[in-house]
Amino acid sequence: MFWGNRKTLKMNYFPDEVLEHVFDFISSHKDRNSVSLVCKSWYKIERYSRQRVFIGNCYSISPERLIARFPGLKSLTLKGMPHFADFNLVPHDWGGFVYPWIKALAKSRIGLEELRLKRMVVSDESLELLSKSFLNFKSLVLVSCEGFTTDGLAAIAANCRFLRELDLQENEVDDHRGHWLSSFPESCTSLVSLNFACLKGEINLGAIERLVARSPNLKSLRLNRAVPFDTLQKLLMQAPQLVDLGTGNFVHDPSSEAYNKLKSAIQRCKSIRSLSGFLEVAPHCMSAIYPICANLTFLNLSYAPGLHGNDLTKLIQHCRKLQRLWILDCIGDKGLGVVASTCKELQELRVFPSDLIGAGNAAVTEEGLVHISAGCPKLNSLLYFCQQMTNAALITVAKNCPNFIRFRLCILDPQKPDPVTNQALDEGFGAIVQSCKGLKRLSLSGLLTDQVFLYIGMYAEQLEMLSIAFAGDSDKGMLYVLNGCKKLRKLEIRDCPFGNEALLEDVGKYETMRSLWMSSCEVTLGGCKTLAEKMPSLSVEIINEIEQMEFSLDDMQKVEKMYLYRTLVGHRKDAPEFVWIL
Amino acid sequence: MEGSVAYENDLHLKATELRLGLPGTDEREEHAVSNVRNNKRPLQEGGANGKSDSQNETAPPAKAQIVGWPPIRSYRKNNFQSKKNESEGPGIYVKVSMDGAPYLRKIDLKVYTGYRELLQALENMFKFTIGEYSEREGYKGSDYAPTYEDKDGDWMLVGDVPWEMFITSCKRLRIMKGSEARGLGCGV
């Protein structure tokens, strides 16, 4: 009896406010989720104190339930379409509309301050409603979204009085060339971050100059192509405190006065650590930025056309402190060698292909990657598009860099074997997963058999996301992964010979995952139906590309695209005609 | 979309391409864009299939036909294609007309490093002399003035803007002659 009392005393001893204060120190979503599972009292305290919520799949929960559980919500992150939508594998209008969320939040008493969206459909109407509904709204980040125009941006600019951040990354925006920038009132002086690099249209140059001039807290500014060189120079004069700069048009005549003015303006910008843009550039222009290269930690030249090996290496030789580098493969293997010998602090490297029509001109091979691995031991994140890869190279890379968290390799020719041995790349990727014990994300390419999946299942204990294309021989491949990777959250597969047997072996597994995508595989309609029947907590969507008037209900028919995800709110009501939810 | 455009660009390469196989047969050419199942191979022969596929198939354009490959965000793809056409690509060819000449010519602006080279080339091509360029008076000392049509459709005097800006905005060239030409030089 006494023991019982003492135990309950311990649990309830701390008043709620103290626990709440303790929870304030817990910011990670995962930890917060765990805390809420301890007991009813902790659940209650946690939910009242939670300010930031991350929802990886907007269809897994409803806005109403979100609002009911977290009345103190200030920051919401939502993701909509599945990842393969980035590559045109998901038809437009599939879904992922943000409007219902904004509408529900606007009706509630939630004091939303920050909204971060990825791969969602955002209408001008939603932006306008957003701008008018939350007095303290501070931050809007849109990544890979679509559906809005500059009119929506004008509403945000005009109505969000305390706006700190407007960050548009790689969105498809219908540019009405309206004066959205002029919609920022004269009283708006709170901007910290402004990124409109993805906008294609002209902007009012006077407006951006005045806006920057009255934003003393501006730390991050990324311009679009329409901003010419001499405007850039004027902006830099107004904002020497910038930490992150994205240039627009960077073409100039080196003998011109504008060039000299820019050089001196840039030299005053002693805080710039991150540089991107160069959306229009000529090789001789880059010398203007040499003065700030020494302190750069992030350099993104992946949108800069026309800069070739030598131009790039000359520049990079000045960047000894670089931690993240995004670049085009024009840098070449030799250029990557220069990166390897210069950038000893490098943690993240992304090499994008400059040749997209596959004419066989990809300029980097396994050599470049090996150089990097040898020179940059801190490397933990890689995205590498290349002409070819060998097992030997991958094994070397695995040995040199055991710290990979993200490893995404794309050999441009699908199913290409090791060109030296003509073998599949199983051993190479096997070495990667075996050596990199912290690997969370992996994308495979090249010729691959079931064997690579055996390795992944055996060794990739921390793997959370796996992307597979044109790989494997049989259902065994997929089964190795499903059975072995206990922490798997997202699995996306295209063009692999995996069928119903693999899909249905362990249906409970999908409840532990966020989602599964399978396209051009061997699963049939019957298999998907069986899965949907057995697992009511999943939403199993069949996406039909072509308008099939007589959509055959034949269970033996192979399914072109299937996307399934766990959900607490049943089937979504906004699915278009071409989506069939089983 | 992008796939088929790219394929058309490469058609002229296909005619001269060496391949194994009978003329008129082209393995991967006509596959429907989303039908890539045939690319999967059972691989019982342990890798040999993969290899023979690439031996028979030397036509790179077939890759462009696979939807969603390479896996690059469409934003980046779209952005890059248009820029490639503008500033890299196989050259910036513009028509050149000369007042009084029976036919037009075409030149690749990328071949020249600056105005001096370009004007010399034009002089050689059409057998005439262009005068001295000055900011104030245009080209004086000759009956001719080199002009170009820019992106906005306006006719501009060659030489005013930086070279890089010129080659990206020049749509066509016209060598004006006579009184029209002289008119350009005088402060308008």
Quick rundown:
Chain B: This is Auxin-responsive protein. Chain B: One of its GO terms (biological process) is regulation of DNA-templated transcription. Chain A is α/β, with parallel strands linked by helices and 582 residues long.
Return the CATH class of the domain at 1-50 in chain A.
Answer: Mainly Alpha
Which term fits the overall shape of chain A? globular
Query: Most extensive interface, residues per chain?
Result: A-B, 54 and 47 residues
Query: Which word captures the global form of chain B?
Result: elongated
User: How widely separated are the two ends of chain B?
Assistant: 47 Å
The total count of strands of chain A amounts to: 25
Low-confidence stretches of chain B: 1-11, 25-64
Helix content percent band of chain A: 25-40%
**Strand-residue fraction of chain B?**
15-25%
Computed over alpha carbons, the radius of gyration of chain B is 24 Å
The average pLDDT of chain A is: 92
Provide the descriptors you would attach to this structure in a database record.
heterodimer, A: 582 residues, alpha/beta, Monooxygenase, 21-stranded mixed β-sheet, two-stranded parallel ribbon, 25 strands, B: 188 residues, alpha+beta, Ubiquitin-like (UB roll), 5-stranded mixed β-sheet, two-stranded antiparallel sheet, 7 helices, elongated, disordered N terminus
Account of the protein in words:
- The complex is a heterodimer of chains A (582) and B (188).
- By secondary structure, chain A is α/β, with parallel strands linked by helices.
- Chain A has a domain of 50 residues: Monooxygenase (Up-down Bundle), CATH 1.20.1280.50.
- Chain A is built from 21 helices and 25 strands.
- In chain A, helix 9 links the parallel strand 8 and strand 9.
- The mean pLDDT of chain A is 92.
- Chain B is of the alpha+beta class and 188 residues long.
- Chain B has a domain of 89 residues: Roll (Ubiquitin-like (UB roll)), CATH 3.10.20.90.
- In chain B, the strands form 2 sheets. In chain B, strands 2-1-7-5-6 form a 5-stranded mixed β-sheet, covered by helices on one side. A two-stranded antiparallel ribbon of chain B has the order 3-4.
- The longest helix of chain B is centred in the N-terminal third of the chain and has 15 residues.
- Chain B is elongated and about 60 Å long.
- Classes of the chains: A alpha/beta (582), B alpha+beta (188).
- At the A-B interface, loops of A face helix 1, helix 2, helix 3, helix 4 and helix 6 of B.
- Chain B: Pfam families: AUX_IAA.
- Chain B: Aux/IAA proteins are short-lived transcriptional factors that function as repressors of early auxin response genes at low auxin concentrations.
- Chain B: Its main location: nucleus.
- Chain B: This is Auxin-responsive protein.
